[in-house]
């Protein structure tokens, strides 16, 4: 590989670092994304110029197909489905790394390449194990977010033992393949166990924690790419893979901190005692009086309010209610009501999810207020409208030590004068925990689809004030 | 014993890890999703490896696996950057208003 290509990889790596740095700041984020994309273009073009690449037609056809599919996926996907989209893409990336490592090994087994030696067998093993696990783990995360399978943690007897045994089996097979890389049955065993492990590790994690899981799996796909870099002795893969691996671990930690939980707690809390306790508490809590109201009732109370805070959650995303909400906010503003949106850091199923949706609906940026800033204002707030949010407004996180979400910072909406909660049904939230807020004296429930209820409320407000 | 190129690669690895940690120190929650999606696109760098595997002429098996890897990695790269751009475009519009 000649010097020009190495220098191109250095340029690509520099662009990736600048890209990530700029992506982390609101003013420069767009620039950051462009820089990273240019870096990728540089790396790919440089690779195409490598002398060893012989079958250009095939390579270019593969790129064309992938680019076409990627473009369609990216442009067609609804903004609400963004989290699962990232999970899906990440699964593909992990699979690609594992496939490349497997291709190198099988080429060696067929005699096209010398037998792997030195650090290469270890790198092949790492790439195949982490890449396969990323693939199936990401797909389970996708299925949970897309609600193809239930969002609640899936648990069964001896789960911890099964997973531990599988992890040990994976490590054993990994050791075997690293020692004798051309023993193909061992290799296929490793692939199979890694794929199964990816599924079983993500299944017991609740849907509400999927953003953290996706961020962690993102880091894994970086690690897999880095390992593949060692297989091919390719600096572009080593640098970029480890960059992504490290930065996404930090992002994962930032997200865990926002929920006031440890990563271990997120990954393993469904195992054993915590889940059982939670079920007990949830069951006991489910009794109590719930007051159901209509949008017309709500219009009366909203008309007398001076300060209104709207708390959006995943229900708003599902119902595509963001445009209806903007209209409601505008109607209220015309009546002279002060309207703000309270954004919990993990509202929705991905951090920043609500910001993206409300931005799509042209809600002015300055109406969005973050948790720490809005919480002291709730006692002076006349009406809070909780729109498809649940766990992030659950006072149990503040008060009940036995609750699985205890300690998570929440929006203190229960301290406002009146709370309206728009919800499809009394089903517990994504974390599977009952919410005492719904039974409070100052809480009024409106059951129904978020979009329809909000539109009815806006209509009722117009009529009431006509 | 490890050869010199492997040691050089390990050196690069360790230094890149530190850079990765330093680059993302303080990120506002607003940007968590775009950042996640952008870094996800960068992890599609395995496309480079896929091109080398598919285009190297190392037999049908390696070429076939490499080709699948090219398609998957390209979806990851192109989809990742486009999705990130779509998300960020919304924030931009909001700043102006």
Describe the structure.
- The complex is a heterodimer of chains A (466) and B (97).
- Chain A is of the alpha/beta class and 466 residues long.
- Chain A has helices spanning 3-23, 29-48, 56-76, 82-109, 120-145, 159-179, 184-202, 210-232, 235-258, 263-268, 273-285, 295-303, 314-319, 322-334, 353-360, 371-374, 396-399, 450-465; strands spanning 307-312, 338-343, 368-370, 383-387, 418-423, 443-447.
- Chain A has 18 helices and 6 strands.
- The longest helix of chain A is centred in the first third of the chain and has 28 residues, at 82-109.
- The model of chain A is unreliable at 271-287 (pLDDT under 50).
- Chain B is mostly helical.
- Chain B has one domain.
- Chain B has helices at 4-23, 32-42, 46-55, 60-96.
- Chains A and B meet through helix 1, helix 2, helix 3, helix 4 and helix 8 of A and helix 1, helix 2, helix 3 and helix 4 of B.
What's the SSE blueprint?
The complex is a heterodimer of chains A (466) and B (97).
Chain A: H1 3-23, H2 29-48, H3 56-76, H4 82-109, H5 120-145, H6 159-179, H7 184-202, H8 210-232, H9 235-258, H10 263-268, H11 273-285, H12 295-303, E1 307-312, H13 314-319, H14 322-334, E2 338-343, H15 353-360, E3 368-370, H16 371-374, E4 383-387, H17 396-399, E5 418-423, E6 443-447, H18 450-465
Chain B: H1 4-23, H2 32-42, H3 46-55, H4 60-96
Helix pairs in contact in B: 2-4, 3-4
* Structural class category of chain A: alpha/beta
**Topology pattern of chain B, helix = H, strand = E:** HHHH
Largest interface: A-B, 117 and 86 residues
Largest sheet of chain B: none
Please trace the helix and strand order of chain A, writing H or E for each element. HHHHHHHHHHHHEHHEHEHEHEEH
Instruction: State the domain count of chain A.
Output: 3
